[in-house]
Amino acid sequence: MTTLHEPTTPAAGPAPAAAPATVPTPTPDLTVWPATTTEPRPGDLRVGGVPLAEVADRFGTPAYVLDEAEVRHRCRTYRDAFPDADVLYAAKAFLCRAMARWVDEEGLGLDVCSAGELELAVTTGFPPERIVLHGNAKSPRDLDTALRLGVGRIVIDSPAEIARLAAAVGPDGHQKVMVRVVPGVSAGGHEKIRTGTDDQKFGLPIADGYAQHAIARILDQPQLHLTGLHCHLGSQITSVKPYLVAVRRLVGLMSRLYEQHGLVLPELDLGGGHGIAYRPGEEALDLTALARRVRAELTEACAAAGLPVPRLIIEPGRAVVGPAGIALYRVLAVKHTPEKVFVAVDGGMSDNPRPALYGVRYAPRLIGRRPGTAEPARMTVVGRHCEAGDVLAADVELPADIRPGDLLAVPVAGAYHLSMASAYNLVGRPPLIAVRDGLARLLVRRESLADLRSRDVGL
Ligand SMILES: Cc1ncc(COP(=O)(O)O)c(C=O)c1O
After folding, report:
1. Residues of the chain under the 50 pLDDT cut
2. To test the ligand 1 pocket, which listed residue (229, 315, 357, 360) has its Cβ within 8 A of the most ligand atoms?
3. CATH-assigned architecture of domain 68-320
């Protein structure tokens, strides 16, 4: 089978300038790389005991690498930090069959938001009762699939969904549901990923009694069993404070529901959004502090309201898989302009749309050879797509002698990359390779032209 493009072997670029006298190689800053990362020699970066350059040679580029041990370690870190809570992995960050199996084996639940994510998980053996279905606009297929497979919880996001869902469950049926509410808290790394304020599409605002009204309607539907409230404030949140405010506001609503309906809800879902560092020195959310302070806030607020403490549920996505992923690219061209040096690689916004969407920054590294002795220079790593916005890493420091044929590795590429990948320019989505204990194995193969053509049925 021909892949869409063979591993690139580009023509030699312009000769780099003569290098000054040798300087000691600085200790590599691997703080945002998976814990298994080593660099026995400059440029010889290894993850899970596997040289990344070997992965690029064997599977071609662009390619993604996923460190299984890092994913499992992060699942365990969550379970240890939140021993008396349900931790659900947010599949939207990235999902494939292996990921579903690892998360299942590590005892987490799963947050899905489509029939596709749900079916992939369940057909991989993930217990449906440990799955929660989200979505602000669930399709009839999403609901039918959820009911057919027996999903654990369905999170109601709008009033219109109440009657639809009740009808789909049927008068003799029974489905556990939660309600997504909006606590009016602004938090998140970018306005496009802030979902805790009333001016965005998700959930039912608490503020004007909107949520309370919808909940009253749910209580009128005997086939819908309301187990709790849900909120998701946004993504890439690095402070604990917004979660504490959300806890107070959700418990406040739970207290009013108790007064009005005598209702005691056993669950409170605080969503995900836990921020990670994409570059050395950046802040990440302190999970231990989050666990300790949320538990204290919840206990205090419930005591004040005279309510039993509900079971906490959280839904991290990015913080479980983000740091475990690495993107590998081959340099295709280096362009020196009066303004900038552009390093163009064989991937881009079709595998990583985040820079174009949110302006996020990454810290790519040259791998596969020892960098020259010339002082590093500031460069902009760009993709191969037909968009000026197709920038992967603006204004980063890279070896001055970088040239076509070189390999670049970008850490913290596990979340919202492949899951948001597209068929733009028909370059095909990259493969995903798992690494562990010195072994590399293919999890998801490269998308081929035949794959793309298989849908192109009309002439
Ligand atoms: C309902 C819900 N839960 C969890 C998440 C996961 O967020 P993150 O990957 O930032 O942890 C999202 C992300 O959009 C979400 O919408």
Report:
1. 1-24
2. 315
3. Alpha-Beta Barrel (3.20)
